[in-house]
UniProtKB/TrEMBL annotation:
The keyword Nucleotide-binding does not apply. The chain crosses the membrane at residues 32-49, 115-135, 172-189, 195-221, 233-256, 289-308, 315-333, 339-358. The keyword Lipoprotein does not apply. It comes from the Bacteria. The lineage of its organism: Bacteria, Pseudomonadati, Pseudomonadota, Gammaproteobacteria, Pseudomonadales. This is Glycosyltransferase RgtA/B/C/D-like domain-containing protein. Keywords: Membrane, Transmembrane, Transmembrane helix. It comes from Pseudomonas fluorescens.
Length: 481
């Protein structure tokens, strides 16, 4: 009798172990499938099928990188680049570290180089996602919350769009994510601060506002300053040197030709302080642009950036720092009369990380899920428009007018052209800004047809101006010259 009981107990224990093993295997399989889903979604939304540049900015890195190779030096002055477009041929060191990064990707033609850099963007952004994943893991964030956040990052429209452009943004995502990861690891303060500072220096060599990522360490720094002020000051000095080293390593001629650096910096400051058509509405104030930022965040990223109900007191220091950094970036660019959404790209990424990774009310989770759907919709649109750029417009024009329509450039000459272009139809881009409205007033007649762009509700954004802006079609009313 006792032997039978022992045998039954043994069988139950064996079955229990099998069930546990099976459950563990099923959970591991589900996690693997979840990670594969995020990776595939991430890559699909970033593959670029079109040939050639989306925007003239993509001429910069191939031209400057090639000029450095041909001369055999690392002088990143744009003026020295023979193949750079005339508009860019000026004394500037902008995007220095990215232009150095572009050197291994140089191909025989500019279009091939752009394609190679776009492929590199996918790798850089995947690396950024990996850094953020492990930073969240170090912060004690559960697997499925990390999966939720990673999915949001995969479909973040601004990040997806940046992968389609041979510009510095993808490198900056990678470097910012590396800073976040370094902030999250359990190592000595000296090691973390100095390594992060060096990375920040590299990023700042491409874009000065990247220095804002140092704010990630602000909460930790304030606590340390309160408890150990002397040690903190010493750490800050070492970090400043490390940041300078990172900047110097990837922007060497800034120290040899400081006048070129300051000329370029002055030009950028003037550009952002006045206007940069069609990315600005002259005369707008801070509140107007603050509302524009909100419109952009809601229209593109759903409710993610305003649905942040964050229990910050129980969050890791770096998570609190991310929240502060995002706020500083939003406020700073709200004071500028020029709006490029890429200027707030790191703030949007930080907002997504904080909004999606921390536990919250069920109602807020529903809001974030809705924003996830919105972001996915826009990212799919961006991927389609980037890869079929112009073909959809041409197809629409052929269906509407029986032929493809020429568009006028520069816009300021539209009224004169329409009075002299004979029996033709001319397309005039409408960027939704005050300059476009002024040109409409100068033309003085109603368009015969209008094709609304996918991002016409986001005037001055690069999604609107680069991908698909609205177009007004006019019948010429004057004879040809």
């Amino acid at each position: 009798m006792s032997l039978d009981l022992l045998d039954k107990t043994t069988r139950k224990q064996s079955l229990s172990k099998c069930d546990k093993t099976s459950n563990t295997n099923n959970l591991s399989l589900r996690k693997f499938v979840a990670l594969a889903f995020v990776a595939i979604l991430f890559i699909i939304l970033r593959i670029e099928f079109s040939d050639g540049p989306i925007n003239v900015d993509e001429n910069i890195a191939p031209s400057v990188a090639r000029s450095m190779v041909e001369r055999g030096d690392f002088n990143g002055n744009w003026r020295l680049a023979e193949n750079i477009m005339p508009y860019f041929k000026r004394d500037m060191h902008n995007f220095y570290s990215y232009n150095l990064f572009a050197i291994p990707f140089l191909k025989p033609t500019e279009n091939e180089t752009i394609a190679a850099l776009r492929s590199a963007n996918i790798a850089l952004q995947l690396g950024a996602l990996a850094f953020i994943w492990f930073a969240m893991k170090n912060g004690g964030i559960a697997f499925w919350r990390r999966f939720y956040t990673s999915t949001a990052i995969a479909v973040l429209p601004t990040m997806a769009f940046d992968a389609h452009l041979a510009r510095a943004e993808s490198l900056l995502y990678f470097l910012a994510a590396a800073v976040i990861f370094v902030a999250s690891v359990n190592r000595s303060v000296l090691l973390r601060w100095s390594l992060a500072a060096f990375i920040i220096g590299v990023g700042t060599a491409s874009k000065l506002t990247f220095a804002a990522t140092a704010i990630i360490f602000l909460p930790e720094g304030l606590k340390l300053l309160r408890n150990e002020p002397t040690k903190t000051i010493r750490l800050l000095a070492i970090s400043a040197l490390a940041m300078l080293a990172g900047f110097a390593a990837t922007s060497p001629y800034t120290f040899i030709e400081p006048n070129v650096f300051f000329d370029g910096l002055g030009r950028l400051m003037r550009q952002y302080s006045t206007q940069h058509l069609p990315h600005s509405n002259p005369g707008t104030g801070m509140l107007d642009w603050a509302s524009h930022l909100v419109l952009f965040a809601v229209g593109i990223s759903g409710a993610a950036c305003i649905a942040i109900r964050t229990p910050l007191r129980s969050s890791p220091n770096w998570m609190i720092g991310l929240s502060i950094m995002a706020s500083v970036i939003y406020i700073y660019f709200a004071t500028k009369p020029v709006f490029f959404e890429r200027n707030i790209s790191l703030a949007l990424l930080a907002s997504i990380i904080v909004a999606f990774s921390l536990p919250r009310w069920r109602s807020t989770n529903l809001t974030l899920t809705a924003s996830l759907i919105v972001m996915t919709y826009w990212s799919i649109n961006i991927a389609l428009l980037s890869s079929s750029r112009g073909s959809q417009i041409t197809e629409w024009e052929i269906n509407k007018f029986g032929m493809a329509i020429d568009r006028t450039w520069p816009l300021t000459g539209a009224a004169d052209l329409l009075s002299t272009c004979g029996d033709r139809i001319i397309g005039v881009s409408d960027y939704g800004d005050v300059t476009s409205q002024r040109i409409k007033n100068e033309i003085g007649i109603e368009p015969m047809a209008t094709r609304n762009g996918a991002f016409s509700k986001l005037p001055t954004s690069t999604l609107n101006t680069y991908l698909e802006t609205s177009i007004d079609y006019y019948q010429c009313y004057g004879g040809s010259k």
